[in-house]
Amino acid sequence: MNDIRTVVLSREMAEQPQPPTDATPGRALTKEQRAAVERMTQQRLSQVLTPKEYARAVDHAQIPRVIANVLSQQVAHAESFPIVCGSLGAGSQLGDLSFVRRNPSGSVAVRVVHWDHTLWGGSSGPYYTQEYTLQKVDGSWRIAAERDLGLWRDGTWNEDLGG
Q: Which among 15, 21, 48, 66 has most CB atoms closer than 10 A?
């Protein structure tokens, strides 16, 4: 389970890079800095996704470009570093990872619940859940599929069946 936790945390942190060391708060990233963030994101994703899922994420969804552009906007609006974005910030620990099922193919499904302390009338509550299906590739766990499972205020699931 530790290997699975590491892969899932690495996947989530790949989408939340820190700015390049030569970035300046209050100024958007340069074209070269955005390109470096894209390359770093692609490298990180290639290490945790199956080849098929990697091709889908990088080629079709343009995830690295979107991440670089979002980071550039965050740096442009930042007054200081580090920038904490998303539900996991820099150095955050992955919490609430739970085993869901083992499939006949040998793959494993796990879920990660992200918490938000500003929802539900100011009290802490689940924000959304990410479900990952992992399979072994050359002896290492890799993410083969993922999907979002939202949670409505009444506690019912909102399934995004895509992805």
A: 48
> What is the distance between the alpha carbons of residues 85 and 92, in angstroms, rounded to a whole number?
11
Over its length of 163 residues, how does the chain's per-residue pLDDT go in tens digits? 889 989 998 988 888 888 999 999 999 999 999 999 999 999 999 999 999 999 887 776 688 888 999 999 999 998 888 775 543 343 344 557 777 888 888 899 998 876 655 554 555 555 667 889 999 999 999 999 988 776 555 556 556 543 3
Nearest to 34 by CA among 26, 25, 23, 45: 23
Contact 139, 153 (CB under 8 A): no
Q: What counts of helices (H) and strands (E) characterise the chain?
A: 4, 5
Structure tokens belonging to residue 109: 């499904």
For the chain, the domains span 17-77, 97-159
Report the phi/psi class of residue 68: left, alpha or beta, with left for phi > 0 and alpha for psi in -120 to 50: alpha
- Cα–Cα distances in angstroms (integers) from residue 43 to residues 28, 64, 85, 97, 128, in the given order: 23, 10, 20, 24, 26
Residue 83: helix, strand or coil by DSSP? Answer: coil
